[in-house]
From TrEMBL:
Protein name, entry field: Cullin-1 isoform X2
Domain Cullin N-terminal residue range list: 23-230
InterPro entries (UniProt xref): Cullin (IPR045093), Cullin_N (IPR001373), Cullin_repeat-like_dom_sf (IPR016159)
Gene3D superfamilies assigned to the protein according to its UniProt record, in alphabetical order: Cullin Repeats
Classification lineage: Eukaryota, Viridiplantae, Streptophyta, Embryophyta, Tracheophyta
Annotated GO biological process: ubiquitin-dependent protein catabolic process
Length: 253
């Protein structure tokens, strides 16, 4: 890939270009305020600006570190100013719908910034031994959104699952999309999913089946009751495997 002009740029010279031409435009796009996508010429100008701000000897110099730090701050500021306020006022399923929408927007923003900051990501971040740009973006969402909203989100999803167990039709796709967020935030170890959701769900499941057992014995046929027993046993085995996996991860660490 050609990079055009190789004129070195300081952070103070280059960042205003990135702020105006890349970040502000991208935020307008993901927020739905504009439909003007980036042209190939705009992309190359942004990429070249990042390239010229980084050390030309392919070393992680001070300008690269400033650029990384400002990228991290940009993601945190976006989540704090745009994402969190839009979620805080929502309840129940509206909360889940808004969360899914915001997470998808966040992933879109992250993908674009990874393209713009590719040189920094590919050549310099490994030398600085810092988290990748995607990890940094996802961590900003996790810490700032789930640090405040996780209990409400988890309880709302579990409430949906309880309603389905009672025979009510629910929006299964919505519940799955929310659970996908937990998994996507940490695809390698699934720590977010295990710690923040699955343990609570399995505890709720145990309480649900314990409460319902006497009613099933009295009201259901033998075949129906045994199906419920098998269902609960499968969930118990799953919980056991989850705990075993956690112990293995702890030992490996």
């Amino acid at each position: 890939m050609t990079t055009g002009s190789a004129k070195p740029l300081s952070f103070e010279e280059g960042w205003p270009i990135l702020q105006e031409e890349a970040i502000n435009k991208l935020i307008h796009l993901v927020e739905g305020h504009s439909s003007n996508h980036f042209t190939s010429q705009e992309y190359m100008r942004i990429y070249t600006t990042v390239y010229n701000m980084c050390d030309k000897n392919n070393r992680a110099g001070p300008e690269a570190l400033k650029l990384y730090s400002q990228y991290k701050k940009t993601m945190e500021d976006y989540v704090s100013s745009k994402v969190l306020p839009s979620i805080q006022g929502k309840e129940d399923e509206m909360l889940l719908h808004e969360l899914v929408k915001r997470w998808n927007n966040h992933k879109t923003m992250t993908r674009w910034l990874l393209r713009f900051f590719y040189y920094l990501e590919r050549y310099l971040i490994p030398k600085m031994r810092l988290p990748s740009l995607q990890e940094t973006a996802y961590l900003a969402f996790y810490e700032l959104v789930y640090g405040e909203m996780n209990d409400r989100v988890r309880d709302t999803v579990i409430s949906l699952i309880d309603r389905e167990r009672e025979g009510e039709q629910i929006d299964q796709a919505l519940a799955k999309n929310v659970l996908d967020i937990y998994v996507e935030m940490d695809e390698d170890s699934m720590k977010c999913y295990a710690k923040d959701f699955e343990e609570s769900m399995l505890k709720d499941t145990s309480i649900f089946y314990s409460t319902k057992a006497s009613d099933w014995i009295a009201s259901k046929s033998y075949e129906d009751y045994m199906l419920k027993v098998v269902e609960y046993e499968l969930l118990t085995v799953h919980a056991s495997k989850l705990e075993e996996k956690k112990q293995i991860n702890v030992a490996a660490a």
